[in-house]
Amino acid sequence: MRDILPVRNLVIYCQIMRIHQPGGFFLLLWPTLWALWLSGMSVPSVKVLFVFTLGVFCMRSAGCVINDIVDRNIDVYIQRTKNRPLPSRNISVRKAKLLHLSLLLISCMLVLTMRMTTILFSILGLALTWVYPFMKRYTYFPQVFLGISFSLSIPMAWLEISNRLPIACWLLFFGNFFWVVSYDTQYAMVDRSDDLKIGVKSTAILFHKYDTLIIAFLQLLSLMFLTLVGWKLALHSIFYFAILGAFILFVYQHFLITNRQEDRCFKAFSKNNWVGLIIFVGIALSTSSFL
């Protein structure tokens, strides 16, 4: 289908960038904000906050575009994705590639304002953005690659603020990593029946009947590492109330996914932004000069 009206083009570009589905943006933003606040134990500068927030938006959008380009011949067979712009032929592959490159160019301009060490980590992030869409074809662990990709903003933020990578940074990295793998496994449970038909791999398929148990284990690991961050940085006790709030949300998610119904698995996945928000509020209050 040919695009004629500029407004229609804009809507389609927004769809392929998932602007109408900001959940993924916030899931990438929360750990970035955690690290920005914790690395300096205070509110970061407006400039740093702007650069990282816009960078998260552009890289998340670029990741969505390249994922759709790579998966365009698979998405047409999956109920949840068959109406996306590329499988439905509402946008050409050429236009999608140009959009992807434009988003990467903006990201490149942003990262060039940072320290050289931060730039080096961004190169690794770019490589993972390009590699991740292919992982489901060759391995059952695409969620692990996403976990690394969605956690790289943590050392980047730490380097930019303090120019070092202390133990607390890596504790936060692994706390976020296990959280990402857990919620992306929930997300994969939504498409599991379609993925099995077309031969696409995921941790949801690998874990099989142990999926909910392993998700619980990953979530507990995440909370354990986050608790160690609080201990290492001597955070205010209010941070541990945030950890408790996250634990309660995880329990609720397990209530939702117990029967593995696709709509309830997606609902559980969508609740993870509340986890990120609660942890951020706990960190922000713990590093506040008012406490």
CATH top level?
Mainly Alpha
SS elements, strand count: 0
**Low-confidence region ranges:** 1-5
Corresponding CATH architecture:
Orthogonal Bundle
Largest sheet: none
User: Globular, elongated, flat, extended or rod-shaped: what is the shape?
Assistant: globular
Element-level helix/strand string: HHHHHHHHHHHHHHH
The CATH topology, please?
Tetracycline Repressor, domain 2
Helical proportion? over 70%
**Proportion of β residues?**
under 5%
- The whole-number mean of residue pLDDT values reads 93
Distance between the first and last residues' Cα: 58 Å
Number of domains: 1
Q: What class would the helix/strand composition place it in?
A: mainly alpha
- The whole-angstrom Rg is 19 Å
Tally of DSSP helical segments: 15
The CATH superfamily title: UbiA prenyltransferase
Characterise the protein shown here.
With 291 residues, the protein is an all-alpha fold. The protein has one domain (6-286): Tetracycline Repressor, domain 2 (Orthogonal Bundle). The protein is 76% helix and 0% strand. The chain contains 15 helices and no strands. 42% of the residues are buried. Mean pLDDT is 93; it is low at 1-5. The chain crosses the membrane at residues 25-43, 49-70, 140-159, 165-183, 204-227, 233-252, 273-290. Belongs to the UbiA prenyltransferase family. It comes from Candidatus Erwinia haradaeae. This is 4-hydroxybenzoate octaprenyltransferase. Its cofactor is Mg(2+).
Concise description?
This protein has 291 residues and is mainly α.
